[in-house]
Amino acid sequence: MEAYPAPYVQHELPLVYLSGLGEQDDSLDAAPLPRQESGSRVTTNAETCTDERAQQLLKELMKHDGSSRPWNSEALPGPTASLHYRMKPISRTFNLPPRKAAPLPQAPSEEGKSTPPRHTELHSTLSPLSPGSPVYPEGIMTPLWFTKHQHSVPSLVIAFFKVHGNDNAARNEQVQTDINAIRATLGRSGYKTRLSVVLLSDRSILDAPELEEHISAIRRATTMDPKTGLFFMPPMSSPAEIATFVRSLLSTLQPLVVEHYRDLTKHARRKKARGGSASLASSVERGGRSLSASGWNVRYEIKQGVFAEFRQEMDVAERHFSAAIEELCSSEGLLETKPSWSSIWNDARLLCDVVALRVVRCQLWVGQTTGAVISWGNYKARTKDLVDRRGMGCNTYGWFAWESRWAEIMGQLIRRASLPAFQPSDEAVPTSTDLSAMRFHLPPEKALATEPIAPFEQLHHPGYWVVLAFEATVARRAKALDISEEDRISPDQTPASAVAQRSRNYDTYLVPLPHEEFALPLEGGHDHHLSILERLAGEANQEFDARGQHRSAKRIMFELAQELIKATCHSKALDLLVPLWEHASSGDSLWNNLYYPLLQATHECALHASNAGVFLSTAWELLSFDGSQLSQSKKSLPDYIRDQIPTQEKITTKTNACRHLSPVQISLAFVEKETHVGELVGCQVSLCSQSTLGAAPLIVSRVDVAFTDGRTVSILHEEDPSSASARPMISNLPSIAGSETSASVKADLSLLRSEARLFNFFLGFREANVVRIRDATIHVDTDAFNLQHTFDEDNLLRSRAVHVRNQDQVEQYMLPWSDTFSVTVLPKPPKLQMTMHGLHKQYYVDERIALELELTNGEEESINATAIVRQTGKSDSPLSIQWNEQNALSGEVAVGKVERNASRNIAINIDAVLEPAMQSFEIEVRYYLTSEPDTPLMKVLVTELNVSRPFEAKYNFGPLLHTAPWPSYFNLSAQGEEGKAEGLPHRWRLGTDLKSNAEDELSIRSADITVDQVSDTTVCDVAKSDMAETHALRRNEAMPVESEFVTRKASLDDRRPMEVELSLVIKWTRKEGTAETTTRLPVPRLQLPSSEPRVLCTVEDDASEEDQVILHYHLENPSSHFLTFAVTMEASDTFAFSGAKYRALSIAPLSRLRVDYRLVVHDRDEDRGHEGQNNGLWVWPVLQVVDSYYQKTLRVHSGGPRVRVDEKRGLAVQIKA
Q: Which InterPro entries would you find in this protein's record (predicted)?
């Protein structure tokens, strides 16, 4: 768009003057209108608002300036209907251009009197009817008209004035005078520019009520509209408030702005309806020339379209611009009626280009992307037809320049439109998700969705259009090269007749003249074609790269390099070609038709630029292609390099097969899939020449094969004196069995065209591992150069077969596995025997484990060994394993020398495991033979330990009677001693059913309870277990364990419950009498009451009567209250009792009372048989004890032996037999 006048292509935005906030530099604006003697000058005397708030206000207003905004509707701020403006801060004094031209001077008559004018109507200074106009008499438009409305005639003037609460009448009158002066000047100017005034105050109306009166006085004196003409801005503390005020202000004034341009549209429509203006008679005759009716229609259609753009009604503007194009190209239009050599025809063509540009811009604005492309293509076709019929034809450099410019304009419009779908990712390397979401072209809009749309009619991103411009520029350069030498001579040195002939032979529309298009001579001058091509290629490359289209980006750079080569700019071309060549993918032969031209061009440029390294590398690659200069030469590669680039220094270069071709292909394969340490494995290397050299052989100096274990095998060239026909195809090289990091063998590495050579050698490995072929490197080392070409694993030819010689024939043997690049080196089979002694089927928690490892040397000679033990598996509890040796380190012990067929025992201790789990550990024995200290051998023994809990326990808990007397409630001070617990003693029993879960028979030595923790101010004494002898316990067998303990509070006043945590400590051994093990079983926490009443029952035999027993019921009241209980003994058919059937008992605090009953069994023999007991009879007396106050029945507990409690039947008492 730079070729057209800037006002023609500038985006139209409503012009708003900001007066009173300071003036900004407008040097970037378009050129102003020529100075007019007449016009309107607006001058006010008020001071400029320069405080901080005014600057913030100006800043917020300038945010609504759309000069640098994208050309799309989505770039508009706020609501959808809001506009962008061209904000122009101005001083208090500014000028408006004259609306009408000055009247023509009248020639005096013969009698000395002036002749009355035939036409007194005055027109615009830029009208074709005004003699002083640039388009007088038959022009259509001038860029000055666009500049006038873009920069000189505002649609709105916003004037800012300061007002103060203490202003006097004189200052208020000055503001009124300035406002009235601006209104009057705007009215006299003839323009319908609107005026709005903003009054700035440093105080609000609430703080200064007199401000309201001042503002009312100003409004009355100026007759400003209170809604759209006069605004008051109180002090605002935050930028957000100012921004809100600005948005509200512009939203209110927007209808005024739209109405301004709507009035201009109506005026243009009326003038168009009049059919143009009558001819203007003046003293300066125009020779009958005037603007045609068609020209007037074009003029007013353009005006209406521009005013619609100001209103940002792009659909309306597009219709007017399309109508203007149709009028220009019609049979009566200027493009058809004026001769092509006329300047008016060129001006009309330029105007038509601009209008077509605006049509495309409007369609992009409203989202008609496919319509924009169709309009672009239609106008190109129409212009081509016009130039073919009326101009110089389409086979000129002028036409290709226009074609390039038109394509570049489309790319610029798309870029300025900033369509969201075409915005590239911010990341340097777009991800696959970004590329899939990114669009390279847009689908047709809904209105054209059902129409048959060609792919090129869909809107593509700017890079596509820049490529079209690039291609047209290439064609332009080609046409410029065809300019004859006589036409390339400057006109100063050419006859006038020849210069006139040039104007009839060349189309110079917006392009230089022939002698400037391709000057003679060009040497030392500037080739502007290449400058244009470099700029276009750079833009296209940037667009394609930003969207991940790297191949297209490289293609355009390659085409630029080809043009540079044609212009003999080899150094510049080489700078472009080397990155393309270095990153090109040449592995697929299908791409050779693309890669070969790139390679040939790079080789040629390297020769002219004397770049020896690139020249050598490309020459090496060109050996793979027929038809190249090197392949047609009879020379060898070293002779060719010496002849083309004579240099005293040796050339050194390195290439890689992943990017570059090689005339020698190399393939490798291991003959076996697996081998063992110390054994030899075969490897076959194949060299195949693809060189296009004729008689000269290609001599490879060295081939290096590198393996992943760090070893490198080199095959050095050693010439074979025998003829090439007598050389064997397969050569067997010496074996390489050492452990050196590098080894070399020698062979004849000269290769004729299409010749293949096979080399066999054997390798030995000293460590167990998976060894792969890492890479292979071909070296060509001569006195002129040193070239290295490396094949990575991915670029090596993967051979699925090896070739073997069978008598005089070479046969192919297919390998039965796919990965022939690797060999698995297995450890040397160890003959060391490992035996674990003392291992049990099951181990138990808290048990220490003692094992013994026996090592038996089965090798043919003595060994030196080291044993390492480590835990394996996924267990949460770690194992603590120690060697029972003095020289043992952390997990490692030096076994030392073990003779042939000898054994060595090592003890292993494992600490007790605290949690049940399946544990495992391994013992790794590393050893080597005395004769082979560099060949490590290894054997591993994995041992599993099943650790489980040996016991499980069920507990039953209850109180027992403590026979010690209780302290007296009435004499407490005499009961206690200093340092002793004063609380009531409580005796308890803990019964345990101990069950064995062990697979083995365990011997229980003892089972006692221990106190782990008690609550504060509580004393707990545990009675020693009376277990006298060892008890054998088998799997799933149970044994009872009875334990007793006594608790006592430190003070009688402490009524809180007691908490006791106990553990059952079991000491046991295995059946065979191993070391004693201690197992702790935690007892659930016991919460014991200390102040609640309870009833305990004990039994005593009556010494006088055999069948009688005495029941003692002990009622305890440990509380500090008097308690009353109702005691009732229920009758039974089994026994008779002696004692009160019902009685009430009152018990003092901290005391207990005993109630006795004597029982007599009715029929002892019958009951005994019923119970099935031989050691006594159990009876079930029922005694109810009810708290009279709380009506709570107390449970009767067993207080000693021969008394038990059943959950269902209650209390049972044993009567001895």
A: Gryzun, TPC11
Burial 799-822 (b: 16+ CB within 10 A, else e): beebbeeeeeeeeeeebeeeebbb
1139 contacts: CB under 8 Å, gap ≥ 6: 1129, 1155, 1156, 1157, 1158
Residue 1173, pLDDT score:
47
CB distance 1090 to 1055 below 8 Å: yes
DSSP class per residue in 127-156: STTSTTSTTTTT----HHHHHIIIIIS-SE
| Cα→Cα distances 125→29, 34, 108, 150, 303, Å | 21, 10, 25, 16, 15
Chain centre to alpha carbon of residue 865? 53
- Nearest alpha-carbon partner for 141 in 334, 285, 326, 397: 334
* Domains 648-826 and 949-969+978-1089 in one fold: yes
Q: Is the pLDDT of residue 1150 over 70?
A: yes
**242 vs 995: CA distance, rounded Å:** 86
Mean pLDDT of 176-182: 93
Angstrom distance (rounded) from CA 201 to CA 212: 11
Q: How many Å apart are CA 1159 and CA 1129, to the nearest integer? A: 11
**What is the structure's pLDDT at 498?**
67
Q: State the pLDDT confidence band at 591, using cuts at 50, 70 and 90.
A: low
Supply the DSSP string of 803-814, one letter for each residue: EEEETTEEEEEE
Domain 1092-1217 fold is Immunoglobulin-like (2.60.40)
Cβ 347 vs Cβ 299: under 8 Å: no
Mean pLDDT of 248-264: 95
Nearest to 1033 by CA among 1194, 880, 844, 1199: 844
For residues 1093-1097, give the mean pLDDT.
93
Q: Which CATH superfamily is domain 832-946 in?
A: Immunoglobulins (2.60.40.10)
User: Using CA atoms in the order 405, 406, 411, 412, what is the torsion angle rounded to 10 degrees?
Assistant: 70
Q: Read off the pLDDT of residues 215-224 as tens digits, 9 standing for 90 and up.
A: 999 999 999 9
Look up tokens 């139209």; give the residue. 12
In total, the chain counts a number of residues equal to 1217
d(CA 915, CA 7): 89
Structure tokens at 264: 């201009």
How many Cα atoms are found within 13 Å in the side-chain-facing hemisphere of 438? 22
> Model's pTM, two decimal places?
0.69
pLDDT tens digits along 404-459: 999 999 999 999 998 888 876 554 444 544 444 456 788 888 877 778 888 889 99
Angstrom distance (rounded) from CA 1134 to CA 1161: 6
Q: Which two tokens stand for residue 1181?
A: 């007396």
The pair of three-digit structure tokens given for residue 722, joined into one six-digit string? 């025998």
- How far is CA 928 from each of CA 767, 862, 869, 938, rounded to the nearest angstrom? 12, 9, 18, 8
Q: What is the C-alpha to C-alpha distance for residues 279 and 287, in angstroms, rounded to an integer? A: 11
Question: In terms of DSSP H, where are the helices of 923-999?
Answer: none
Q: Name the β-bridge partners of 834.
A: 855
Q: What CATH class is the domain 648-826?
A: mainly beta
Domain positions in the chain:
6-102+121-279, 393-568, 648-826, 832-946, 949-969+978-1089, 1092-1217
Q: What CATH topology corresponds to 949-969+978-1089?
A: Immunoglobulin-like (2.60.40)
| Res 493: pLDDT | 74
pLDDT at position 1167 over 60: no
